[in-house]
């Protein structure tokens, strides 16, 4: 019944002699929030880069809506419905907040090749950009240069850029990285709202287990390049091997609520 | 609002430039059209002399603006811009002097050929080399341009190092006959180039150019095939540089390999940096400033101690000092520094407003 929107089959990535990702298989159901967690060096970011096309896997395939996208170029993916965010804030610093988002809204149409009309006259992209900014709570900062935003604001802008392209699948790389801990719940609520309103699928890579427990439908735990465990938040929090990995790293293991 | 105010300023400058030959004429009691002798006009007098200076400023400004489109707005740094300028010069020169076409047809077809070929060369260079990033691309463009320079310095058909004169120009266009007409033609093309670039940069395409300059990886990640847009920028810049090259040949009535030399890459580069990278007026202000300084001081002599120094002999040194000074005083160019100063003021204003806003006024009652 539930459709698989993203599937990784036996992914393996070697860097010289180092095997960063080893035989990882992953199925993400449409409409779900699927988190990938693991301690430092578990291979989360490498896996993310394989899913988003930044790296080519040594072996294995990535399927999006049943289509082989393993080697699809980075710039084609948004056109298919895949969007990604970046762990290190990656925006257009000297453009306004609105322009950052408007560019993403415009990216999927051939209007980008129209060079004799003013960009603002294509109001549908401006409207979409403003809607995305409203969703993350940045609409009052629309005319500010992006570099002036505080760190938390830049993380929100990152989300708005992603939203404006209206992707079916959002791949988020540690969206809370570097944020003050009191701001984290707000951002996670925003992500949850986005998923519910837009009926989107979210793949979330996180370092911090606490962050994902409450919003995830499924969690994949990685450890030294391999999938250690996969299941619902409740299953994961009771899993012995997960506990030992995280306890080995001196993490508190939270209990999933409900 | 901002654009409206600068439009006012630009209109004012345009009116001044239109009236300029007559203003100089009136001030120096010289004829804006030159002095008639028999059925020819002799280009003598202050008005026509200053027209020539401004025509050069317009042409070099077109060149600098085209360079700025790649360098300042798209973030593509090429050291081969002279290739477009010089190639277009050779193409129009060859069309006028080496073909059996009559002058009018040679002008039109030569110009068209120059645009098409320069656009094509830009496309080819870009396609081969734009996959290279940063300094590798820059070195590649320099190598290609130098290759053409060396080729035309040795090519017997185009008189090698000497180049050749362009004699066949219709009287109405010939700057040594009808300079005033030529002045207005170049002024019109200069204004059109300025408006075209401003429109282009403010268009959806220009937005992508700026996105590539700001963060190419991010532009890729949101779905732009950045190679395609960089190719567009290089082709358009190449064609605008071709326009400058054509006008330069018509003005000097001569074409030689020096038009392909690295000097015609460095000059627009320096003019753009001094005026303000990635601004509309910057390249024009930089070009006008340096060119006018050059014109004023080139013939001057300095007496230091007992020795007399011809400024022309040390012009490179003077230019270097000016460049160092400008970079220290205006690190983002004249226009760029002015804009960022205004931006900073705006941000301070915004921050002080934000500092007040978050605490809502306590409700009375």
Oligomer: heterodimer
CATH architecture of the largest domain in chain B: Orthogonal Bundle
> How do the SSEs of chain B run, as a string of H and E?
HEEHHHHEHHHHEHHEEHH
Return residue spans of chain A where pLDDT drops below 50 for at least 5 consecutive residues: none
CATH architecture descriptor name of the largest domain in chain A:
3-Layer(aba) Sandwich
CATH topology of the largest domain in chain A: Rossmann fold
Strand content of chain A: 15-25%
- What is the straight-line distance between the termini of chain A? 25 Å
SS content category of chain A: alpha/beta
State the end-to-end distance of chain B.
Answer: 42 Å
Overall strand count of chain A: 10
For the biggest sheet of chain A, the summary is:
6 strands, mixed
Query: Do you know the CATH topology of the largest domain in chain B?
Result: ABC transporter involved in vitamin B12 uptake, BtuC
Structure report:
The complex is a heterodimer of chains A (258) and B (365). Chain A has two domains: 1-81 and 168-258, Rossmann fold (3-Layer(aba) Sandwich); 88-166, no CATH class. Helices cover 33% and strands 24% of the residues of chain A. Chain A has helices at residues 44-52, 77-80, 97-106, 123-136, 151-164, 184-198, 209-213, 233-238, 240-248, and strands at residues 4-15, 18-29, 33-37, 59-64, 67-68, 82-84, 169-173, 201-206, 218-223, 226-231. In chain A, the strands form two sheets. Chain A has a six-stranded mixed sheet with strand order 6-7-8-3-9-10, with helices on both faces. In chain A, strands 2-1-4-5 form a four-stranded antiparallel sheet, with helices on one face. In chain A, helix 6 links the parallel strand 7 and strand 8 (201-206). Chain B has two domains: 2-292, ABC transporter involved in vitamin B12 uptake, BtuC (Orthogonal Bundle); 314-354. The longest helix of chain B is centred in the first third of the chain and has 29 residues, at 46-74. The chains are: A alpha/beta (258), B mainly alpha (365). At the A-B interface, helix 2 and helix 3 of A face helix 7, helix 8, helix 9 and helix 13 of B.
């Amino acid at each position: 019944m539930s459709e698989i929107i993203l599937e990784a089959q036996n992914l393996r990535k070697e860097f010289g002699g180092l095997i960063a990702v080893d035989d990882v298989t992953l199925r993400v159901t449409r409409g779900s929030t699927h988190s990938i967690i693991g301690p430092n060096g578990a291979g989360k970011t490498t896996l993310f880069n394989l899913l988003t096309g930044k790296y080519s896997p040594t072996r294995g395939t990535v399927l999006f809506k049943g289509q082989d996208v393993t080697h699809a170029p980075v710039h084609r993916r948004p056109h298919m419905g895949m969007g990604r965010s970046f762990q290190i804030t990656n925006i257009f610093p000297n453009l306004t907040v609105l322009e950052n988002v408007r560019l993403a809204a415009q990216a999927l149409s051939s209007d980008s090749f129209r060079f004799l009309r003013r960009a603002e006259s294509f109001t549908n992209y401006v409207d979409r950009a403003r809607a995305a900014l409203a969703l993350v709570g940045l609409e009052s900062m629309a005319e500010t240069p992006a570099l002036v935003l505080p760190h938390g604001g830049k993380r929100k802008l990152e989300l708005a850029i992603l939203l404006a392209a209206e992707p079916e699948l959002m791949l988020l790389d540690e969206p809370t990285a570097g944020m003050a801990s009191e701001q984290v719940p707000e951002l996670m609520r925003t992500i949850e709202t986005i998923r519910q309103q837009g009926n989107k699928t979210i793949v979330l890579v996180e370092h911090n287990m606490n962050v994902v427990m409450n919003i995830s439908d499924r969690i994949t735990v990685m450890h030294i390049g391999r999938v250690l465990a996969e299941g619902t938040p409740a299953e994961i929090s009771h899993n012995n091997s997960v506990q030992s990995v995280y306890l080995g790293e001196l993490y508190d293991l939270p209990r999933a609520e409900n | 609002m901002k654009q409206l105010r600068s439009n006012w300023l630009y209109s004012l400058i345009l009116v001044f430039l239109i009236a300029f030959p007559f203003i100089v004429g009136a001030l120096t009691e010289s004829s804006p059209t030159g002095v008639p002798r028999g059925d020819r006009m002799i280009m003598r007098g202050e008005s026509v002399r200053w027209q020539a200076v401004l025509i050069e400023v317009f042409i070099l400004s077109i060149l600098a603006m085209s360079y700025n489109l790649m360098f300042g707005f798209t973030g593509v740094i090429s050291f081969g811009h002279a290739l477009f300028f010089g190639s277009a010069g050779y193409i129009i020169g060859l069309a006028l002097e080496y073909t059996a076409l009559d002058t009018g047809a040679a002008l039109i077809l030569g110009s068209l050929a120059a645009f098409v070929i320069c656009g094509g060369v830009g496309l080819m260079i870009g396609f081969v080399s734009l996959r290279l990033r940063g300094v590798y691309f820059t070195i590649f463009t320099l190598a290609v341009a130098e290759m053409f320079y060396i080729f035309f310095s040795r090519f017997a058909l185009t008189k090698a190092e000497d180049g050749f004169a362009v004699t066949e120009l219709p009287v109405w266009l010939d700057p040594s006959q009808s300079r005033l007409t030529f002045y207005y033609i170049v002024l019109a093309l200069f204004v059109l180039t300025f408006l075209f670039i401003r429109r282009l940069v403010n268009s959806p395409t220009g937005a992508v150019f700026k996105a590539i300059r700001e963060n190419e990886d991010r532009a890729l990640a949101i779905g732009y095939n950045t190679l395609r847009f960089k190719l567009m920028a290089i082709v358009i810049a190449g064609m605008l540089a071709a326009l400058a090259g054509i006008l330069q040949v018509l003005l000097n009535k001569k074409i030689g390999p020096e038009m392909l030399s690295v000097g015609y890459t460095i000059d627009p580069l320096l003019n753009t940096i001094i005026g303000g990278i990635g601004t509309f007026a910057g390249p024009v202000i930089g070009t006008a400033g340096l060119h006018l300084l050059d014109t004023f001081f080139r013939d001057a002599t300095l007496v230091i101690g007992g020795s007399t120094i011809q400024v022309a002999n040390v012009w490179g040194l003077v230019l270097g000092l000016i460049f160092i000074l400008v970079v220290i005083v205006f690190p983002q160019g004249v226009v760029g520094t002015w804009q960022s100063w205004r931006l900073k003021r705006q941000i301070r204003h915004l921050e002080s407003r934000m500092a007040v806003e978050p605490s809502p006024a306590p409700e009375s009652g």
